[in-house]
Write a structure and sequence with these properties.
The complex is a heterodimer of chains A (about 300) and B (about 300).
Chain A lengths: L1 H28 L3 H5 L6 H10 L6 H13 L13 H36 L4 H15 L2 H15 L12 H30 L2 H8 L4 H38 L5 H10 L3 H29 L7
Chain B lengths: L1 H7 L9 H10 L2 H18 L1 H4 L37 H37 L1 H16 L2 H11 L4 H10 L2 H16 L2 H8 L4 H37 L11 H9 L7 H28 L6
Helix pairs in contact in B: 3-5, 3-13, 5-6, 5-8, 5-9, 5-11, 7-8, 9-11, 11-12, 11-13, 12-13
The chains are: A mainly alpha (about 300), B mainly alpha (about 300).
Chain lengths: ~300, ~300
């Protein structure tokens, strides 16, 4: 297990290095980064100053090595628009994004597990069709549109919930439900199909024939095994979920990394964008490593060599 | 002997033509039928947008701005779904928006599939370092939110239709590459491939004759789901202000435009969102059925 974790950590470092290289190459491949980041009206002197300040006057390999070295020391550069260190800006906003992402995941798990199990147990009935339609709709609706419609209904018309900002816990409800809805559709379908597969297994038949309570068979034996693909899926789509959070943050003016990066993209603040890309990659590799470890808890038969 | 064969003949069902089999299978699956009808309607709308749209999509009528739908107070049948903040007919823009969604979706799905198939073939057949590098590239791409990469690329390359198609294709290639790589790895060790290699048959012929036909079903199914995701991604990028030229009607752009008027003129946001949802739902329903039809064992 330890060897496996060390190997995975090394792989993760390579992936992170790749993420840094890609963002570095994109900003350089599109021409002079100084021209890209400054407005069109910048003078030759301003461009030269900018290049010197950001080390862009050095050869590209030197710039890359220096950037990697800075990253390793936790220095992701300085935001052009904010004039503050990128790391500080991200660390300030990251808790809000993670709060939103985890709240959405919790809502989604609380909804999709009971619905997924219920429809799997009532296969080919009206409940199954209704559950499938609900799940398909969740996948088909653009999350930003769901967010706009929910804020119109619950914020503008009914005035039950706030529609922008992050001052109180109530502010979290609409963005988390919106993002959770996006994930619920996908998870419900996965849990349904996974449960249907597990319910056909020999060990479930054996458990039933031994007279174990149906509740125990379903919720303990079947669901535990049906959860393995769900855990894999959550690990795989975690990056998507973070991306979804970024769009939702824009809809609800939620002060997270998403809003920060979208404004950074629109204002061509590339050091900040590079920093956010690197941070998302870091979160992704950590989550996937945790998912791999969680497998062994869910299914002790899985061992890593 | 002859009589026994004659007895068996009525038991052997004549093979249906593939197209007839396709539709007769679909007929028994409502999701496939609904999905297929939605897709045909959207394609029809996209092709005949000029004939179907009651007005030119960019015609501004400042006096008619923010008109409600026909059945609401102040609405008129001249603008059945109302007008936007510049007085443009919402129905006409939705009709033309189908063209953008479909053409961008189809082009990027083809490009993504092309890149993915080539990468998958290279990874699977060359193995070794090539496989490691391509696998590493796939892992790197999956490690950060796709929408973030897309935003970054759109901003860095100054947007535009071609950039948008390439960016959306980049979002999908990994899925195809994984399927093809898996197929190549399973076929590579087969005896008939070794025999074919030994008898001097070129690698390209082996790949096209044995590998690609086996991967056809999963690729078609992945393409259908990728198409749905692509339409959603295009809408998200347009909504965030990094899609194609704002003058061209795109459903995501229409949603972004209507956002400022959500409190009083909610239908401006409602209708393009419905268009996106119905289209994606149709493609997903059809994709679901297609998976069952082509290979029910697929877990995509």
């Amino acid at each position: 297990m330890t060897t496996y974790i060390i190997r995975r950590l090394l792989e993760s470092i390579l992936v992170l290095l790749g993420a840094v290289a890609i963002t570095f190459v994109i900003t350089r491949a599109t021409g002079d980064p100084a021209r890209l980041m400054l407005s069109d009206g910048a003078t030759a002197e301003q461009l030269a100053d900018f290049r010197r300040d950001f080390g862009l006057d050095k050869p590209i390999p030197v710039q890359f090595v220096r950037y990697i070295n800075d990253c390793l020391h936790g220095d992701l550069g300085k935001s052009i628009r904010h004039g503050l260190p990128v790391t500080q800006l991200i660390i300030d906003k990251l808790p809000n994004t993670l709060k939103l992402t985890f709240a959405a995941m919790l809502i989604s798990l609380l909804l999709s597990f009971p619905i997924g199990v219920f429809v799997a147990l009532h296969r080919n009935t009206f409940a199954d069709s209704a559950g499938t339609i609900f799940a398909l709709n969740g996948q088909a609706m653009p999350s930003f549109w769901v967010g706009l419609m929910l804020s119109f209904i619950f914020g503008v018309k009914l005035r039950w919930l706030p529609i922008s900002g992050a001052d109180t816990r109530m502010h979290l409800i609409l963005p988390a439900v919106t993002l959770g809805f996006y994930l619920t559709g996908r998870l419900t379908r996965l849990i349904r199909s996974s449960m249907l597969e597990v319910l056909e297994k020999e060990y479930i038949r054996t458990a039933r024939s031994k007279g174990i309570l149906e509740k125990v068979v379903i919720w303990k034996h079947a669901l535990r095994n049906a959860s393995i693909p769900v855990v894999t899926y959550i690990g795989l789509i975690f990056a998507d979920l973070l991306g979804g959070a970024m769009v939702i943050e824009t809809v609800f003016a939620w002060p997270g990394v998403g809003r920060l990066v979208i404004n950074a993209v629109l204002q061509r603040d590339f050091p900040l964008v590079q920093g956010v890309v690197l941070f998302s990659a870091l979160i992704f590799v950590i989550v996937n490593l945790l998912v791999d470890i969680l497998y062994t808890i869910l299914d002790p038969r899985i061992t890593y060599k | 002997m002859n009589s026994s064969i004659a007895d068996l003949e009525p038991l052997i069902k004549p093979q249906k033509k593939p197209i007839i089999h396709f539709f007769s299978h679909m007929r028994h699956h409502s999701s496939g039928v609904i999905g297929f009808i939605i897709i045909v309607l959207i394609i029809f709308t996209a092709i005949f947008a000029d004939q179907l749209a009651p007005k030119p999509y960019n015609l501004k009528a400042p006096k008619e701005r923010l008109k409600p739908m026909w059945f609401m107070e102040g609405g008129s049948t001249e603008y059945p779904l109302g007008t936007d903040s510049l007085g443009r007919d919402i129905l006409s823009r939705i009709v033309h928006g189908s063209r953008i969604s479909l053409s961008v979706g189809i082009a990027s799905v083809f490009l993504g599939a092309g890149i993915g198939i080539v990468m998958g073939l290279l990874a699977g057949f060359l193995g070794g370092k090539a496989d490691s590098i391509i696998n590493w590239l796939m892992n790197v791409q999956l490690s950060f939110p796709y929408i973030l990469l897309a935003l970054f690329l759109m901003a860095a390359f100054n947007g535009g239709l071609v950039t948008l198609i390439v960016v959306l294709a980049i979002g999908g290639w990994v899925r195809y590459a994984r399927i093809i790589r898996g197929q190549v790895l399973s076929v590579r060790e087969e005896t008939y491939v070794t025999a074919a290699q030994a008898s001097g048959i070129r690698m390209l012929r082996i790949l096209t004759k044995h590998v690609l036909p086996n991967a056809f079903s999963p690729i078609i199914v992945v393409a259908s789901f990728t198409m749905a995701d692509t339409i959603l991604s295009e809408a998200s990028l347009s909504f965030l202000g990094l899609g194609i030229n704002p003058a061209i009607p795109s459903w995501g752009q229409m949603l972004a435009d209507g956002r400022d008027f959500l409190q009083a003129k909610w239908w401006i946001c409602l209708l393009p969102g419905l268009a996106i949802s119905v289209t994606v739902l149709g493609i997903n329903l059809f994709g679901d059925w297609l998976r069952d039809y082509l290979d029910p064992r697929l877990r995509l």
